[in-house]
Design a protein that fits this description.
The chain is globular. It has a domain of 237 residues: 3-Layer(aba) Sandwich (Rossmann fold), CATH 3.40.50.720. Helix 1 links the parallel strand 2 and strand 3. It contains 13 helices and 14 strands. Helix 9 packs across helix 11. With 368 residues, the chain is an alpha/beta fold. It binds nicotinamide-adenine-dinucleotide (NAD) and 2'deoxy-thymidine-5'-diphospho-alpha-D-glucose. 2'deoxy-thymidine-5'-diphospho-alpha-D-glucose binds next to helix 7 and strand 9.
Length: 368
């Protein structure tokens, strides 16, 4: 275990434990949390290819953030962290998250998403069981999950509600579905105070450039092909990551124990629309020089072989979280995507540090 000690964390303050907090959504969550609260964060992350400590440059010397390099599947480590830091909540972001990688190699997905979540729950159950009554009642385990557990929608089908049947289609979504069931069972059987959120596709700062939006920005700037799987008419419901973080904070504060909340961006778009929109923004913000062989980034769009088992459409009905908790996304796609493209243009140094040899090997393997 590598631990950066946090020093004096302020008497009387509660603490939260975040897992997977060095990944895309987790690091946005930690940064946003500490911007709005004095409550310290213990951040447990295995630092797989998807986890990056450079995301926390702005938190350097901030003793409210304690980073611990470790595995959610390491029961003795998680139990020790819980006892040492006495958190009032655990927010579980840790996962293998990329569908295409789950198709090439599902093992890590089963290990972290299923076994890891199970072992984390066991540690939390042991810790929570020994808490004094008041702390026990206030404790929460919030499990961050995905809309992919509900499977694929036909074009005219209603959006996913929390009671939709689970029909996961990829090894990734099947592993997340399994984890959701285990979390649910720990509430039903042991009364562990859990909350589950199922969210749609996120985009924003710090997203690893294996996922559609940052991959397209990265390739476009290098004048490389912009790969579209199949016909590009698959639909996703895009949510700005800052809105996902505010939804999680709202559910943590006001969600009813044992309940599930769908989180979406009210923003269904086809992949090809997304890529065209990115090209338009880049054409304006980073025009191609007149001596290049192309005039617009959209000339780089290239349709390639489809993803096996590719889900056609996801869409979230976010009525429950709005009516029960009062949460709605603050960003439109226009505002969120503009911020995102600007962030990547302003943070090319971050991207360069991310696209290491391992990243290049993945790209060669996936897009050869
Ligand atoms: P990510 O891949 O960017 O980050 C995952 C993080 O988990 C990484 O920092 C990684 O190092 C860490 N991790 C992996 N295995 C671990 C282990 N065994 N122990 C501790 N840490 C480990 O993923 P993300 O996009 O930030 O997604 C975070 C969570 O949100 C995941 O649970 C994912 O299923 C869910 N989710 C993601 C999206 C999305 O669009 N990205 C949408 C809905 C739900
Ligand atoms: O719906 C929530 C899920 O969204 C999360 O649970 C996952 O962790 C997250 O990775 C994301 O899954 P997707 O498979 O939808 O995201 P991805 O960015 O990989 O792909 C978005 C769409 O774009 C999908 O239809 C596949 C397509 N695509 C993706 C890549 C990487 C392409 O056409 N070309 C590509 O090169």
């Amino acid at each position: 275990m590598c631990s950066i000690p946090c020093g004096n964390r302020g008497a009387g303050l509660m603490t939260i434990l975040v897992t997977g907090g060095a990944g895309f959504i987790g690091s946005n969550f930690v940064i946003d949390w500490l911007a709005g609260s004095e409550e310290p964060v213990i951040n447990l992350d295995l630092l797989t290819y998807a986890g990056n400590l450079i995301n926390f440059a702005a938190l350097k010397n901030d003793d409210r953030h304690t980073f611990v390099n470790g595995d959610i599947g390491d029961s003795s480590l998680t139990f020790q962290l819980l006892q040492q830091h006495n958190p009032r909540a655990v927010i579980n972001f840790a996962a293998e998250s990329h569908v295409d990688r789950s198709i090439h190699g599902p093992e890590d997905f089963m290990q972290t998403n299923i076994i890891g979540t199970f072992r984390l729950l066991e540690s939390v159950r042991g810790y929570w069981g020994d808490l004094p009554d008041a702390e026990k009642a206030n404790f929460r385990f919030l499990h961050v999950s995905t809309d992919e557990v509900y499977g694929s929608l036909d074009a005219d089908a209603p959006a996913f509600v929390e009671t939709n049947r689970y029909e996961p289609n990829s090894p990734y979504s099947a592993s997340k579905a399994a984890s959701d069931h285990i979390v649910r069972a720990y509430h039903h059987t042991y009364r562990l105070p859990v909350l589950t959120t199922n969210c749609s596709n996120n985009y924003g700062p710090f997203q690893f450039p294996e996922k559609l939006i940052p991959l397209i920005i990265h390739n476009a700037l290098a004048h490389k092909p912009l790969p579209i799987y199949g016909d590009g008419l698959q639909i996703r419901d895009w949510l700005y990551v800052g809105d996902h973080c505010s939804a999680i904070r709202a559910v943590l504060a006001n969600g009813t124990v044992g309940e599930v909340y769908n989180i979406g961006g009210l923003n269904e778009m086809t992949n090809i629309e997304i890529v065209n929109r990115l090209c338009d923004i880049l054409d304006k913000l980073r025009p191609i020089s007149s001596d290049a062989s192309i005039c617009s980034y959209c000339e780089l769009i290239t349709h390639i072989k489809d993803r096996p088992g590719h889900d056609r459409r996801y869409a979230i009905d976010a009525t429950k979280i709005e009516s029960a908790i009062g949460w709605r996304p603050a960003e439109t796609f226009e505002t969120g995507i503009r911020k995102t493209v600007e962030w990547y243009l302003d943070n090319q140094e971050w991207v360069e540090q991310i696209v290491t040899g391992g990243y290049r090997r993945w790209i060669e393997r996936q897009y050869a």
